[in-house]
Amino acid sequence: MDTATTPVINHDPARYATDGYCVFRGVLDPETIAAARRELDALMALAPESRPEHLVEPHVRHAPWLRLCLDPRVVDRVRAVLGDELMLIMSHLIVKPPFDGRRVAWHQDRPTWPTVDGDDVATAWLALDDADAGNGCVRVIPRTHDRARAIDHGPAPDAVFDLAVDVAADEERRAVDLCLRAGDLSIHDGRLIHGSEANTSARRRAGYTMRYADPRTVRIDPAKHWVPIYRVSGAMA
To answer: Could you give the number of structural domains in the chain?
Structure first.
C-alpha cells in the first residue's frame, strides 16, 4: 500500500473536534488489564449461552467495571477531548470470540440512544485484548460526525447490531483501523461513523466501551434512561 495515502491514526487531542476521534496509548497498566480480563471471564461464565457482544451495563452490577469507568487515567483522557464536566451514562462490553466474532456494520452511536438529548457525548473504547485488523478492530471514518448529516439507520441482519448507515465509497476509502494494544484507549464522538469486521482469527477481541457526556449541554431523563447516571468529573462530581 502507498504509505502516502495510508490513513494515519490521530493521537492528538487537539484534533479530536476536527477528526472526531483520538487514540491514547498505554493508558492502563498490564496488572489492571489482567484483573479486568479475569472479571470478564467470570462475567462470561455466568451466562455461557449468551452472545458475548451483548454484555451491557456491567458497571451497574459489578463494582470492578464501575472502577474502570471512574479510573482517573481514563477520565483524564476523556476530559482532554470533551471537557472537565463529565457524567457517565452507560457502558458495554463487546467481545468477539475467536473465529466467531460478528462484524459491526457502519453506524453512529448517538442516534440509537433515544433518552439522550444533546451531542456532546463520547465513547471511550478500552482495549482489554490486543486489537488489529486480523481480529476485528474498530474502524472509524474521520470527520463524519457533522451534526447536520442526515442519518438513516437501516437493518444489518448479519451484524452484531441490527442497524447500519449508508457510507459512500470515497468515505470508506478514508477509514482508519484503530489497532490497539491491551491498555490503549480510543475515544470517538457519538456521531462519528464507525464499525468493525468479523473476527476470523484464533484470537479473542474484547473491548470495554464507556460512554461519557457533558452535563452542561446533554440532558437525560432519569425516569426514562435505563441505568443510573454518575457525575465523574467537574464541580458537582
So the answer is: 1
